[in-house]
């Protein structure tokens, strides 16, 4: 579903991603971890071309992401992105936040888009918030709206960039629970997160990055019980 082949990216003369090779299968849940500044956000932002790359290839569900002929709107419709800072449209209701893209990009009838939005709000456990504005919701509720908004495009892949890092501790689990449900339903997911309990429970694979290099990838069991690289061991000793 996602294939990185010898991907290199530079910010100016800083080689932020170095020779990344990565292959993610349909339905796989991959957690990306590593120290701050290691290139995790950059890596996942390349998947829907929020960031361009300078060398190598990224193929997502058959689309060569950096080919100028690739239709970015359609690529991004297939790849949902959930940010640390929710990024909801503040002047729109929850319902309008969710229905905007299905109506504008997918050409869905408003009534169908609203039915879908209500189903998704039920799925993320806030069926009663459709008429609220983002500022009237808690952080955990806003992030669940952001997930519902991503799902409304019926994406084939969902990307999460530290979706719980801006939340108060008591709200983290309500967001992780929604992500766990998606994972169990077979969604292909790439999640940058420091929630190692989540990683242990639902990841098929954990990737560790440091200094723009993909240092290690393994099953959660092997990753935690038998890390291979000294940098991985050092990172785990700080966060576990
Ligand atoms: P992470 O998500 O692992 O914390 P990032 O991918 O955000 O790491 O950043 C990796 C490195 O690239 C950091 O050193 C960061 O300062 C740098 N960086 C990120 N975005 C930009 C940018 N737009 N321009 C220049 N440098 C950047
Ligand atoms: Mg980041």
From TrEMBL:
Keywords assigned: ATP-binding, Nucleotide-binding, Transport
CDD domains in the record: ABC_HisP_GlnQ
Molecular-function GO term, any one: ABC-type amino acid transporter activity
Domain ABC transporter positions: 2-236
Pfam families named among the record's database cross-references: ABC_tran
Domain of life: Bacteria
InterPro entries in alphabetical order: AAA+_ATPase, ABC_ATPase_HisP-typ, ABC_transporter-like_ATP-bd, ABC_transporter-like_CS, MetN_ABC_transporter-like, P-loop_NTPase
Similarity comment: family membership: Belongs to the ABC transporter superfamily.
Protein name, UniProt field: Polar amino acid transport system ATP-binding protein
